[in-house]
Amino acid sequence: MIAAAIEAKTVLGWGHRKIAASCGRPPSTVRGWLRSFASSAVAIGQRFTTLLVRDAPDAVVLWPKPAGFAGGEALSVLMAFAEGVGRRFAATVTVTWIQAGIAATNGRLFCASWWAGAPNTNPPLCQALAGGKVAAAPAISL
After folding, report:
1. What are the pLDDT digits (tens) for 92-111?
2. For the packed helices 16-23 and 27-55, what is the interaxial angle rounded to 10 degrees?
3. Three-state DSSP class for 73?
C-alpha cells in the first residue's frame, strides 16, 4: 500500500488526498507515508546508487535519468536496482522495486528513523581531562 502511494505521488503527481481516496486510507496516514519517504529520499537514492553499481551486471545501461526532485531520483534508482537484480537472476525470478528495496534494507525501506542514521551521542563541547578536572578544549578560531 505504501509503495502504491509513493508511485502515485512520484509518477502520477497525485496529492495525498487523492491517493488516500484511491487506497481507502485516511489522508493523514498517506500524508505521513509520503513525508517519511520524502525525508529519506536523498539517503535512499545514495544507498541504492551504491547498490546498483555493486550488484547490477550492467549498471551503465540501467542508469536512471535525472528526475528533478529527490523522491523521483530515489524511486528511479530503486527501479534500476530492481531491474539490475532481476537481470542478474533472470532465469529464476522477476524482481519489483519494492521487493528489491525491502530485501536490501532488511525490511527497513520505509523506516525514516533507520535512514536518518544513529543519533549523535557526543558531548556538545570537546572536553579534555586536566589534572582530574574536566576543562573545555580551546576554541578554534577560523
Report:
1. 778 888 898 988 888 888 88
2. 90
3. helix
